[in-house]
Structures are given as C-alpha cells and as structure tokens.
Amino acid sequence: MRRLSYLFSIFYFLFSANSYAQETCKLRGEIRDSIGLPVFDASVSAFNSKNEGIAFTFTDTEGSFVLDLPCNESYDVEVEHIDFESYSENISMDKSKSVRFKMNRGVISLQEAVVRAKQPITVKGDTIEYDADSFRTAADENLEDILKKLPGIQVENGKVFYEGKEITTIKVGNREVLGGNTKLLTKNLPADAIDKVQLNKKFKQNPFANSLSGDEEAMLNIELKEDKKSLLFGNATLGGDAHEHSDVQSKLFYFSPKTDGTFITDFNTYGKEVFTNEDYFAFLGGMSELMEEGSSFSLRDNSNSLRLGSAQDASEMGSFLSALHFGYEPSKKLYTNAFVLFNNNNLSYKSVQERIDANNYERDEQYNDQHLLSTLGRLRVDYTPDSKSQIKYRLSFNYIENEDDQSAQRSSNNIFTGNTNSLLDKTSFSLRQNLSYIRKIGRDNNLGIYMRHQMMDDRPDMEIYSDGNPMVIDTLNFNNIWQQQKFNKNNLQVYGIYNHLLTNTSNLRLKIGTNFSWQNLKNSIYEDNSLITNENFLTDSDFNYSEFYADATYTKKFGIFKFDAGVGIHNFRNKTNLLNASQSLELTKILPHLDAEVKFSNAQALNLSYKQEYKLPNLVDLSNGYDIQNYYSVYRGFLGLQEALYHTANISYGYFNSFTFFNFYVGGTYSRTVDNMQSSSIIFTRTDDNDNTNRPQINSLINNPEQDQTISAYFGANKRFSRFYSLSLNGNVSYLDYSTQIGFSDGINVLSTLTNNTSLIQNYTLTNKFKIKKKVELDAGLNYLRNDFESTAKSEFTTWRPFGKLAWSITDKLLLQSDYSYRLQYDADELINENQALNASIRYNIAKSTYLTFMAGNILGNEQIVNTRFDASLNRTIIDTREVLGRYFIVQLRYKF
C-alpha cells in the first residue's frame, strides 16, 4: 500500500502544479433591459481572436453571469436572447473585470428588411442553436470536427458529451439515421453539408412521460443545407503489402428527407477493428433495449453474444465483414429501419498454458485453428397513430457458427505425458422480440403495456481425442470422447406500467407483470461412437418457471431533493424434471427499493439507491448430468440449489462545468449476497506416481452458507488548464470477499472444505494531453493495475504501463500518427513479462478527396501477449502466453466522396 500512496502523491502533485499553469481572469457582468430590469436566461459567449469559442454561460434570475477566461487576451463577448436584439463588445482581459450590458427589445417591422450577419449562437427555450459556418474552418472534414469547437460540447473519439453525460441521440433533420449509431454519424457526415447544430437540453425518449419521469437528456439535431438535403457520401479503401496482407473496405452513406441507408464491407488480414462492441450494441438499439427496460427477470442467464475479431486474436487471421442498414420514414407517424451484419473470421495461433502450484508444474503447448461465422439483424418499427399513443416493435436475431480445432502437447513436471486433440463445433441462434404500447391518459398520466419474448437454441458439440492418456470420469476411461448437447430456452414477459401524476411534485407508479421461462437440456456422451448410458452421463431435463409480481413506487420532489420509494411483491414458481429426479419450488417475497437524488445545480448532483432482488437457478445450474467442458474440467449442476438474495446500494456524485473545463465524478457500490450461488470443485489426487490417467476436475454450484460481499469504488477528474494542456485521472477499486468449496478425492473418498477468498483489484490511469498550435496533439500517461488475491495461497500481480499517442499535422496535407506502450508485469516482486508495442502511420492528402497512407504495425516485433491469473478452484497460478500478429507494413489508398 506504500507504493499506492506514492502513486497518489504523484497524482496530487501533478494536479496541484498544473493548476497554476495559466492565470485565469474572471469576467463578471450584469445584463439589463432599457428600463433597468434584469435579463434572465440570456446566452453569453466569449470568442478569441481566432473566433474560437472559449467560454459560454447563461444569465441567472438577477441577470448576472461569470466567465472564466485566460488572462492577457482580448475577447468578443456576444449576448443573445430571443426577445432582445443581439449585443456584442470587445473586452481586453488584462485582469478580472466587472461589466454591465444593456439590451434593447427586438422590433418587428413589416415595411423594411434588415440584412444581418448570422448569429453564432441562438437560444430558443431549451434549445441552443449553433450556426455551423461560424465555427467551421477549412480543415474540418466531418461533424466531429465541428462539434469539438462548439462551447459546452465535448467529443472523444466520436462520442459526444454535454455536462459530462454522453449524448446517445443525434438526429438529422429531426429524424434518427444510421440506426442510431452516433459514432458512425459524427465521423462520416461531411462538415460542409451542415447548416445548424441544435442542442436540446431537455429531450425525452418517451414523449408521453410526465415531468417527474426523470428521463430527460440532451439531444443533438443536425440541419443540413438546402442543397444537401439529399446526400450521398462515404469512402473506399484499397491497401496491402507485397505478399501477406490485404485491406479492402468501402463505406457508403445516403440521406434524404425520408430515407437513409448504410453499406459497409471490409476484408483485412491484420486485425483492423471495423465494428466495435459499442457499434454492435448501438445497431441493436443501445443498452437500454438490450437490458429489457422496465422489466423484471429473476433467473441467472447465459448470454449469447457476437464475437468480433481484433489484432490481439491470432498470429494469422483473415476477417470479412459486411453490414447493411436501411431507414424509411414515409410520414411523421411511421418510422422503420432494418440492419443486418455478417462477419467471418479465420484465426490461427499458438499458445502455451502453464499451471503452477506448490507440488506440480503442468504445461500445455497448444495449436488452435478457429473459424467463426456470425450474423445478426434487427428490425424496428415506430408508429404514432395520434398525439396520445405510440406503438413500438423490435425484432433482433443472432446466429453463430464456431469451429475451434485445438491440438496440445502436455507435460507434467517437465515429463511429456501425451497429446490431445479437441474440436468444438458450436451453432447458436437467438431471437428477441419487443412490443410496447404507450398511451397518454388525460394531461399528465400515461399507461404502458409491454411484451418481451426471447428464444435461444444452443448446440455445442465437442470431441476430445487422447493418444494414450485417457480421461477417467467415475470409473470409465475415455480415449475418444464425443459429446452432443442441445439447449433451448423460451422466455416471455408481459407487464404494464401506469404513471399517475398526483401533484406537480409527486407521482405514483404502479407496475404489474409476469415472467415465464421454458427450458430443455439434452446431452449425450459417446466413447468411440458408443453411447454411454451410465447414471449422470445421459441428460434429458426440462424446466418450467413463472413469476408474478406487483410493484408500487412513490416519487416526491421538493426543492433540490427527489426520491423514489417503492416495494414489490413477487411470487416465484418453478419445476425441474430430470431423468431420475424432480423438484418443485414456490415462494413469495417482498422486495423494497429506494432511489434519491440531490441536484445542487445543473453542474452537480448526488445520487443514492438501494434495492433487494432474488436470483433463482436455471436449468443448467440444476441439471445433474455431466457436461464435459475440456480435457481438464467437467461440470454438473446441483438439483438442491436454492435462490440467492442480493442487497445492493449505490452512491455517486458528479460535477461538470464545460465552461470552466473541469469535470469530476466519484461513486461506489456495496453488494451483499445471502445464499449466493458459488463454485464447488472436486480435485482428484494421484495415489500412484506411475498413474498417467487424467481425472478432470468436477465443478458444480453450492449455496454459500457465508455471506459474500463486494465493495467497489470509482472516480475520475479532467481539467483543461489552457488551450494547450489538459490532465485527466481516473480509477476504480474493487474488493471481493466470497467463499468457494474445494474438495480433494483419491477416487473413493472426498474431503471438502469451505475456502474464503478475497480479491483486491486496483486500476488507475493518468493521462496528459498536449495541443501545440493546432499542429501537434500528444497524449502521455501511465496505467497501474494491481490484483491481490488470497485463498489457500496468496498471489500479487502488478502491471505498469506507460503509454503515449501522437498526432502531428506536419503540413496541411501530411499527417503523422503513432502510439506506444511499454508493459511490465510482476508476480509479487518478480518480473514475469515485459513487452513494448509501437504502431505508426503517415497520411498524405494527394488531392482534395484522396489520401495515401503508409502504416506500420507492431514495429518492435512483439509477437506474444501474456496473461496471468490465480484460479481459486484449482488453487493454482495460471499463465497464458499467446502468439499474436507480428510486424507488418501496409500501403493504403483512400478516396472520400
């Protein structure tokens, strides 16, 4: 912990030292009308000599404002209000000053026309409108470049933020485009097509929500120029090297007043990231829809997700991706869009796994060949038949084929013990449907009826061949084991939510609903194509689950305080049928929940919450048949598993002021679980040194009689000290205290003990950002990661990672980019891995829309990555070393249109 205190001391010194990097002057002012009355909610903007927005604010009820401005410069201070004529004055800030402005009421004359210059910023109620031409420069290429210049808005790698919160809705012409993927829009919409940027500070996704719904957020609307209302744009890329690598990509976007479309296709052999997980979630409707907004489901779940390849996946790879999106809005009442993505990855790599404990050292040299094919799609329909109702329908599907062929050479204590070959051939399909109807009742109340349906079919077939070292399960030897498995699941949720606004400051929310789940699991195990019918080797299980619940929540707002207090009553029922046993469960529980908010101002708020919830085991948790996971591990469920109770409390505080360029947030979570479902393992010990058979570890679940606890905290701060320098620090700390059961067996007797495990994980990142004359952008920082784990043994893993990132506009046409990181990994005080990563590219603008790029990846030739962890169930340290893509050089030609 002393090393950690040193680290915090360094962070504090850096923050303190740089807080005086540039002197700041305060401009205090009052704005009055012609008769001396204060002007409320007027926008006040300060622009430097280069017409860059430096600070921005609104006047309060007394007509007062304060701007923090760098000293020793002159600024054009502009004041705007919808009811007054605009006012502008140049002020030299050699020191802090106080000013008083007078504004005249606007006059409308029908007899004359007045031609005036465009106003850079206009305030219209809750909307701030920015004139794009007032902020655009010749170097701006896309929407992202313009947004970076707008006062009050921040942009980080395509993500847009206002008052510290991400803007998740960006429309074009008041219509959602590109399937709601904001990053694709900001990085590709041409800057010269943009006329206005409108920021709505109080946007509601649900147009029928009342004033206490608490779902207000910021939203951007982009208005295109008249001659750009129908717009086709995009880019095409062709690249590669002389013999090994290829890079072919096209991105095509189309807008019109009623239609938009996207077509993306890419093939590369060096792990280029085309679609991130964020893009994947965005096209599926965002996290709010994937998390079943408003629903309650109490079963442990096994997710089925799409896997996208990256440069860290393999030493050899080929990746093909194609995505198509289409949106159509024939009228203001109806909006539809559809999206489909196809991805095919072929990966090959070599890896080594080492398993180390007090008595043994085991090593597997592994060769993997993996073929992954995945397809996902989404259909969305929004229909608004009248001003008081709305119908929404969502359909999404995901299909995966994964074939993973692995051969391994095994050794124990440096003695060769044999070869194994394993083949996982898995197909999986899932489909999700959401249907909702929302109706406004009267002036302030609304009723929502929701239905969610999900189905999944999962078929993972596995074959394992051993050339003389058989797997021994129970008393049976397996040299060529083959497992066929089929798991399907159907979930149905139906519920209604009624919001009744009691007064302007109080609301009653009533919710009633039901959940159903039907699950079936079949598993067959063969040895040399002969079906094994012994007990626990054949599985045919069914599971029926139902939940009925009702919940009432009272919301009250007074002053800066707002709280939601509620209670729900839940009735759970399920029945599990196995081949040789069955079990039924029925229970009723009362679950309270509480949320509170203290909103000190628009820039800072404190939030607290507490809830209780039950999680029940699913069919895989309960079914007691063997499920072979790999050569070393077999899983079987436990029919006696019971429900677990979760207590969760959260606290968070955030302060954000985009005009003083300071952002700070901190928060924490405490979770305590009663009867938590935790792992139980049986490890077989050899009684004979000449015994070369492999008895795999048997894993299961138990209800932990001890109470598991988790404490986590996070924080972050960002401060821009000048236009040239900013500093950010963020981190998270988590402490876990839980128990697992470990049993040791000699093949006949089992001795089991409950083992307490604690884990303290710390992760901190300090980043310095430098900008020099709009030519150079440099990020330099340090990441510190530490994991202290204690079980039957102690382990300490530490990683130090200094890093840097450079972007240098050498000329208007020549851009140099590079990134570097240096990783040092320690086990206790012993250095176990050291590697450096350096990538660079140089781009030349051949013509207005044509770019030639030379890219160099993994320049230092690091060809492997190492991951270290401690496995509590095995009581072992595990080191995984994997080969990755080596050094490569690629020439790339890109054309933008």
Automatic annotation (TrEMBL):
Domain of life: Bacteria
InterPro entries to which the protein is assigned, alphabetical: CarboxyPept-like_regulatory
Residues passing through the membrane, by range: none
Signal peptide segment: 1-21
Keywords associated with the record: Carboxypeptidase, Hydrolase, Protease, Signal
Molecular function GO terms recorded: carboxypeptidase activity
Protein name: Carboxypeptidase regulatory-like domain-containing protein
Species name: Moheibacter sediminis
